[in-house]
Amino acid sequence: MTYLPEEFLKRMQEMLGEEYEEFLASYEQPRTYGLRVNTRKMTPEEFEERKIFPVKRIPWVENGFFYEGDVRPAQHPLYAAGAYYLQEPSAMTPAACLPVEPGERVLDLCAAPGGKATELGAKLKGKGVLVANDISNSRAKALLYNLEVFGIDNAFVTNETPARLADAFEGYFDKILVDAPCSGEGMFRKEQAVARDWTPEKSEYFAGQQREIVRQAVRMLRPGGKLLYSTCTFAPCEDEQTIAWTLEQFPQMRLIPLPEYEGFSPGRPEWGSGNSDGYPERTNGNLELKRCVRIWPHKMNGEGHFLAFLEKDSAGRSVSGEQEESRAEQEKLMGILEEKNPKGLQRETKRNGRLDQRKKAGKKGKASGSVSENALSRKDRELIEEFLKPCSRSFPAERMELRGQKVYLVPELPETVRGLKFLRNGLYMGEIRKDRFEPSQQLAMSLGAGEFQECICLEPDDERAQRYLRGETLNIRPEETKSPSGWKLVCVGGLPLGWGKLVQGVLKNKYQSSWRKN
């Protein structure tokens, strides 16, 4: 039986009135399980046709699917190939509702562990830039890993406070997603630990943090840009009241309608103000708040969520209120690190070998907005071009940087990013080593099906696919490869898994050691 705190139940009963019993009964139903297809690698229709395991479409998420709780999607090799991401169905909604177009500048401000960032990156289709930030360094490493598995090659993964980012990116982004740290009330059925840690005071605490995050997000949004705010909580002070505060503080922001779907419930204007105990005051409120969306577990096949979609007017009026809080106030954000999302996501990621620490790849650095000081030499370019001869995809040399021996393909960023802490700037392509180029795992994952001619294609049920993921050498038959030796892209079901080097019929495994299965 789901544990629910008494103070939480008391407040929900006052909020919901006649709906309360139906709401309470929903906690006796089993939770739902979902996955989201990576549209950079396949279409939802192609995923269905493969019939990997039984799935059913999520009606309100175009590339989302339900699966049964006894299925283990993370054990399938297509999961390691980045074909899909495991995500609670309601949690897919914010990224699905933010209309990202290829070529745009997009920010996921509170991005770890990467469920929403991977979808935003897939929508960009390799064009434009995705800045994915998390204030927690450990969680940002999980974020980086998930983006790499998905093959997102135009991401700048940062580890900063919102205020520091706003100093670097003021008025820069076309679209911003703020999946705000919250009290997590909507995830009580899924994560009992969150329910047991809950206290009435948490909602007011998080509301203060959310407003500071939104303040900085508004600074970073260009005139005419759009911001999607979301939480996984029911608390009005974190939901309607935070949006009411935003509209009051920033008159250049207005609510715009979200896509309609049967089961989506409108925001409640009467909950747009409250008292110090976190209870809503039943006033008429701002009727614009009806444009927000609430997802209730007794009305949808998912957990609780709240969404608000805002647009900054094209006149670009200056942000009202104080532009910047004190740095001491900013550091208070560090207190939310482990509270943002249900902890079980991070535990599950670690069990599946996805939360590696990779000290070298995770080093912080000073971001550069220019490649000139790290430009490749002619010899380095020739080594890379020689390796990429079997590749049909173009990698512009003018966007490549050499840092030490490592080669990166970097997105275009403003000079103001210098000094920001980051884990990755663009695509790590590989290393220059003694007159040769050695490709990275990340380069392999960024390639599309059929983009590299020198490949070895395994079927998902071929036992060598699992052996490859464990780091073992493989025996390769002559008819399975175009040439008898050299670097090969190992694929499963047509999707890249990583590299191998073929010598006399034996494939030396180059799958990144920190990604290997036990």
Number of helices: 16
Beta content: 15-25%
Number of strands: 23
Head-to-tail CA distance between termini: 34 Å
Rg for CA atoms: 24 Å
Going by CATH, the architecture of the largest domain would be 3-Layer(aba) Sandwich
**Main sheet attributes: strand count, strand direction, barrel closure:** 10 strands, mixed
| Helix and strand composition category | alpha+beta
What does this protein structure show overall?
By secondary structure, the protein is α+β, with helices and mostly antiparallel strands. It folds into two domains: 6-30 and 87-351, Vaccinia Virus protein VP39 (Rossmann fold, 3-Layer(aba) Sandwich), CATH 3.40.50.150; 372-409 and 426-515, Nuclear Transport Factor 2, Chain: A, CATH 3.10.450. The protein is 27% helix and 21% strand. The protein is built from 16 helices and 23 strands. It has helices spanning 6-16, 20-25, 44-50, 77-80, 93-97, 115-124, 137-149, 162-169, 192-197, 200-220, 240-249, 327-331, 343-351, 378-387, 441-446, 463-469; strands spanning 33-37, 55-57, 64-67, 84-86, 105-108, 129-133, 155-158, 173-179, 221-231, 253-255, 265-266, 293-295, 305-312, 400-403, 406-409, 422-425, 427-433, 436-439, 455-458, 474-475, 486-492, 495-503, 506-509. The strands form four sheets. Strands 5, 6, 7, 8, 9, 10, 11, 12, 13 and 16 form a ten-stranded mixed beta sheet that branches. The longest helix has 21 residues, at 200-220.
